[in-house]
Design a protein that fits this description.
17 helices; 16% strand; 2 domains; 14 strands; 43% helix; 411 residues; Rossmann fold; 6-stranded parallel sheet
Length: 411
Amino acid sequence: MRILHVTQGYAPAIGGTEWLIQRVSEELVRQFGDEVTVFTTNCYSGEAFYTPRLPRLPAGWSELNGVRIRRFPVLSRVSQVLRLLQAPAHRLRLPGNQHLRAWSGGPLVPGLARAIAEHPADVIAASSFPLMHMFAALQGARQSGRPVALHGGLHPDDRWGFDRPMIYEAIRAADHYIANTQFEANYIVERGADPARVTDIGTGVDVERFAGLTAAEAKARLGLEAGPVVGFIGQMGRHKGVDTLLRAMPQVWQAVPEARLLLAGARTLYADFMEREIRAWPAAQRRKVTIAFNFDEADKPALFRAVDVLAYPTGYESFGIAFLEAWACGLPVVGCRRGAIPWVVTAGRDGLLVPFQDDLNLAEAIVLLLRNPRWARLLGEAGHKKVEIRYNWREVGRRFRAVYEKVLHNL
């Protein structure tokens, strides 16, 4: 089968969707011998879609692990200007403000729809809303008369990003929709999608990749030998709950003064705010913080292995791959009781859930796990069993291909 994946970024760009599409693409090549091509941008992160000064990858063709990749340049200066207009247009409910929000968020890629229409693929699949390449994929598929599957990654609580009728019109026009959780599947069916053309798949993790290093070795490598470690490993942004964790940690230190904090992820514009917040802390607290920006993907197992509790208090998550990576290490997790997350983390069985942006409850959950290591270990073990059974890449790749087979043969 010839498959064209269209996505906002691809390795070495970092992000949950980027990693998912990379692994699914590689599984399709490895398991089935499919010919997989990825059309993507030359940006490292979504911030670059509207921030011209951020670094770029070279545009053009390359290959990685049997997958052909074409990176398109982005008109970030246009989106940068449009961002000045989007907020007042939305506030005033001006006609077309959903389109203005889409154009300002980008990525604006001239010629992408035409390139999709001209590329020789049997099936076209695109991830993720509300970004503009999703609509280009639908347009290109329709122009060439080929089936298209959309993998949305919706965050329904983010009304700014997802309260847009154009998204649900596109979903209804597609041949199939791939949801990350049953929560997301139910959400789009309520908005008119055909249940027979919606499949809940989710994402995956390499359990074996996290098994070669002990916690003691990982902590020694990072200089974290003294005290238990609370970790956040993921995209640095307010929407990921980093601000809530920063407010919670002084409360954690009142109960567990020996605890350490590890923050790891790609450096974003939000990181400047984060560092200012930490600089305002007393020196004794600042010394308990380790920050790992722009870490190499090969270092990720060591980062997770060094953690005793993963605190990932995000409120806008279509799934949350960080939970799977923590469970691959047998770690307990703390997430938020919001959106799709309760469909991934089973409260009291493999992790704890707290209200979104509630630093007091987050601190209490972290302290509870740090003070009860046996219970924390049982939660982590339950999560480990979950990823072994359902969230391994071989199974995820097989499920994606089953959808592509279905749309190709109009089943």
